[in-house]
Fold each of these.
Amino acid sequence: MSKIYKEIGIGFIPVFLVFLVFLGVNVIPILFVSALGGSLLYMMKTRGGIGASAGGGDRKSKNRTPAFLTFDEIGGQDRAKKELMEALDFLIKHEEIKKLGIRPLKGLLLTGPPGTGKTLMAKAAAHYTNSVFMAASGSEFVEMYVGVGASRVRDLFKEARARAVKEGKDNAIIFIDEIDVIGGKRDAGGQREYDQTLNQLLTEMDGIHTNDAPRILIIAATNRKEMLDSALLRPGRFDRHIEVDLPDKKGRLAILHIHAKNKPLAEGVTLEQTADQTFGFSGAQLEGVLNEAAIYAMREDKPAIEQPHLASAIDKVMMGERTDKETANGEKERVAYHELGHAIIAELVRPGSVSQVTVSPRGKALGYVRHNPPQDHYLYTKDYIEDQIMIALGGAAAEEMIYGGRSTGSRNDFEQSLSMVRNMMDAGLTSLGIIDREMVTKEQLMKENAAILDALMLRTKKMLDEQRNVFEHSFAILMKEEVLSGDTFRTLFDASVSQSA
């Protein structure tokens, strides 16, 4: 019947307008007001202002409890998983903890870089506790209409409780990703829409009573914890803060094995080598490495992934896809000398660290040297950082030695060098000693910065000048092959050093 009435209404409107025109009525204002009203009605419906709740519409289909995702399927986060599972035990073993007077946690905050598995851990938490799982992003609560965000927070909690009752479950987990969007520090005296949404979230968390059934647990994720309002971080709201950091070598290897389960690996392929070469990669990047390696194998019509495919995939994830840039021959030669400068210094200060030297353009880089970190580092000495700076300066130093001047290709190298010098200053590893940047003049900082970089550049040039034979032996082969493996480069390096000796 509603369809019939709708068709009758659609047919009546143009007839009515024609009738008004016949009577001499100006219908333009009517059309304008009708169009404006229809647009506002449509916007409010799609944004959740009228007839749509935070848990309504499309969200209902994506908030189902994830099946078959367990903590065993998340690699590289043993410490974080252990801490999270302990907190979840408070939720499911409420009778046992009541005897000790332990208050179950209301909120868990997962912090760490992007791609480290925070969302996966929240989903695994729902599976571990057999809970209803509701997911939302902080941006979903941000609206141009006052009060809509706060209304959505209320509706999210209301639907979590209703679904838990409907599905006969004792617990419900609400996961809010990117909570820094709505949980940022509030301005004194300001009344933003964000503040109203945050205030409502705080109120809802205060209203969680641990003895009520169903029990509600909030899990939030952010990679910008320093931006969060202190009211969110206090005990009684987000009681436990769990750091989900970048995986170490053991963690990287575990992640690679998980994502390699459905991929054929050629005989002799070792994922341990890939784990060595991916220091600083997140879990998402490691998954991307294996996926790109499989794509390279498919391009070459190979039945299984081989070690070169994994090496190319690491380059792809780090630098981007190979480009079709055709550089002039003179420019390519300069790039070759530049990259050899990096590689020679790296081999001198850290033998065996060069994994690959190439002059093939990839991403925005015309050439690059991929290094093999011997082991994961979390503490750095002054000597170690100075060696890293010299490796970064090696390209510019080689250009100066060969051509008498630098090019714009050294820009990124200088940015890295400046960043490392700042790190040295902040750690008290320079002649300035332990400093507070606000108590030191800009001139002093610039003077110290220049002194460090100038001294290291002189050392770098001297070391490269003593290795001219390496340039001569490696340059022609690099120009011809475009790619030198670490082992090939070391063979050329050792042969050149032997001749010069």
Note: The two ends are 97 Å apart (CA to CA).
Amino acid sequence: MLKEIVAGVVLGLIAGLLWLGYNVFPFVFALGLLFFLYKTFESRGGIKQFAPLNVHDSKAGTGIGFSDIGGQNSAKRELLEALDFIREPEKINLMGIRPLKGILLVGPPGTGKTLLAKAAASHTNSAFISAAGSEFIEMYAGVGAQRVRQIFEQAKSGARKKTKKSAIIFIDEIDILGASRGRGSTSHLEHEQTLNQLLVEMDGLSLDGKICILLIGATNRPDLLDDALLRPGRFDRIVQVELPDFEGRLQILKLHTRNKPLAEDVQLRKVAADTFGFSGAHLESLANEAAIAALREKSKFIHKKHFCESLDKVIMGEKLDRRPGKDECRRIAIHEIGHALISEHFRPGSVSTVTIIPRGKAMGYIRQTPAEDSYIYTKDYLEGQIAVLLGGAISEEELLGNRSTGAANDFQQAVELAKKIIKSGMSSLGIVSLKDLPGDTLHRGLQEILEGQEKKVRDIIKKYKGLVKEAAGCLVETERIGGKYLRSLLGTEKKDEFKKEAI
């Protein structure tokens, strides 16, 4: 309505000037230029107002409780303790405790940081408002600072509107907004003004006694954050949200399969054991892909084979249409059996599946089952992993007379593991600084480790040449064999029963 009134006044003014005999061209040109600059500035976000963010009612909006989040027991305990400051303010005041202003959730992507923030809002019956760090950064100075002020004001007004006593502001990827000042290209006026405004808003949180506001930030790069943001009195708690352990993965799988029809042959404990290193997002995708595989086959239940298929898909990607020729297929099979044989030699029972079905960038691969979740590694373990990586190329060389480019990535990983041995002071070089080590000395140290494992692997492959040929022939025929079939050839399992079993 206002735009129409202004347009009418301007047109009336121009008509009046024309009637009086004035030259209106300079006036019209100036108005057109101002309108063009206005539209250009507005399209780039210079004067555009910060788009209102959705304020969710914690009971009907977020719909997430701590019981809906699997694993992360340590993070949930620490977060629940911090949320008591919102739920029981009278009790906290009696102890003379200052309310917490900010909680920083730190962890890899997909571990449930956003879900924890939503659950915090439900747990405290708070208004919930969320934004991404990138929404605050613009090319024009002052816009980001304005948006920071608005999100805090919006949290307060949202809480009043919902008649709530508290509000939680969640900023995802807060490292974009709160990156250290004076570091590289991020050191510009707009970024510093935006960060300064956030610091001011956090300092002023305790001044509003009617509505308690808690800021929750999430990042997987805490090393990028400014020290002023991390000091006590701003982000008072730093909660680590790590990848789930075995029990955590099992709990997450149970949550994501509770609405899915599982067949009797599905053992979630076995699936949890096979998914070491998976985040909660990976596990949700795994359960979803298994259901899709079952639907594709028009099966009423999700079977063990569907989880096997989805596990391969989540790790390696979708199956590829291309298929190698007969000779190349046999080479790939010999390569993968070489990996599997060495894996079984160093850690019996470790091979879950061997396949030559192309997925992603891999023409074939083996999947190993970790004996238990491990976070530190011994020299023997690392040397065993190097041997497994070398097994494919040496198997090709011993049975086919030469190697192929298919081992390039294996060699790269083997070198990295050898560097880890040297860096950890477990090599013949003793305790050294890897970055200060002369290049030729480092090369000799790596060569010593790799050559030692290569000799061991070659001796094993020579001993089991017949086994490699038989297993590779079966693999070419079926495209997938289970670890139990491979162990049957070694004499530890019944052969016929497990020939085509995948897991």
Note: The first strand starts at residue 55 and ends at 56.
